[in-house]
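Case 410 in the screening queue. Each case pairs one protein sequence with one candidate compound; here the compound is uridine-5'-diphosphate. For every case the pipeline is the same: read the inputs, emit a complex structure as tokens, and attach any notable structural observations.

Predict complex for case 410.
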Amino acid sequence: MALARLEDYREVIGGAELEELKQLARHLGGVRMAHVNSTSVGGGVAEILHRMVPLLRELDIRARWDVIKGGDDFFNVTKLFHNALHGKAETITDDMYQVFLDYNRRNAQELDFGGQDCVFIHDPQPICLIDKREQGRGCWVWRCHIDISAPHAGLWEFLRRYVERYDGAIISSPGFAQQLAVPQYLIPPSIDPLADKNRELPDDFIAGVLDKYAIDRSRPIVTQISRFDRFKDPLGVVEAFHAVRRKIDCQLVLAGGGATDDPEGLLVLEEVKQRAGADPDIHILHLPPGADLEINALVRGSTVIVQNSLKEGFGLTVSEAMWKSKAVISRPVGGITQQVIHDATGLLVHSTEGLAFAIRSLLANPDTAAHLGRNARQFVRHNFLITRHLRRYLLVMLALRNPTQQVIEL
Ligand code: UDP
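Case 410 output:
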């Protein structure tokens, strides 16, 4: 489906919020803004930029998006950096730093930021592009999307020297704040309510998808949408489901993709299949990339959504389900704690037994699930939609461009 226009969001967020966005943007009209990240497809950052850049342009911000280039050697290093920043014990060698610096230098030679008023560098991969900053011109922001609450100490020291040359850093969750000499802004990621993954769907389409996968529409459906990744603990979901099913007749859907090019993903998928055995009520769906409408339908057709992650950056799947008025059960990790407020916008659990208990209680009390789902949708509407994200980016730009202005007149 074609990308929605800014005006299309009026029906979702209301006229007042849309007007406010336009008024804020008037203070920035004609400003040149560059975003830089390391991939144009796949992953939440690219997904958000695909939406964000056209919307900025509609607001008369001259936004552009550059993607840095790298070979396998670079991306092996940046993946290892990513894991190390997430707290995994990794050994980082001088050669790795050298590869990282060499690719950044090469990209810096190809990219031209002359005349840019605002440059947003996303995540660590292109962080050294700050070397291109022209003296005294434009504001530069490091936009960090990952959990840096317990980073590899040496790597963080290396990166921090770059971060502190920016005018500010944006983090996704309060727990990710670091001691830095530059201001930090808290801006969570967002979902697009009008994208295929989130837009309203006709009932017969939802029914068609459930039928396609032989999921029984007459019995409760418990679903987790996630890559097959140990950090998402799908085995724990299967175990909890077994416990629930001893008391309540229901089905489990574990749907995810992204395993084909990831040997560990395939391994986890196999483990999950083994644990599930031949149970016809456990549906393990290995979805191809871009199955957005099907994912949307699976969530909408489910009774309860689980996101059993043991570690999470933000967990977009949680907001995606909450937006569909679903009661979500999660663990209190990473950015999930910003989305799920226990007993208000969903349920938080601390163990597999707790997960089973929470699933049973929501299946037995559909009114409670509906109440949590209604709250969840409102919470996402006010906090995690792309339009709110856009507004926060505009505010950061205004604050950095006018550091002495205390009040912004609308
Ligand atoms: N997703 C998808 N297909 C799948 C599984 C997940 O498109 O088979 C999407 C999901 O809807 C969400 C994103 O991938 O938009 C996953 O983001 P999240 O922050 O939840 O977790 P990550 O995979 O980045 O750890």
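Case 410 observations:
- The radius of gyration is 22 Å.
- The pocket of uridine-5'-diphosphate is lined by residues 44, 197, 225-227, 256-257, 287, 295, 314-317, 320 (CB under 6 Å).
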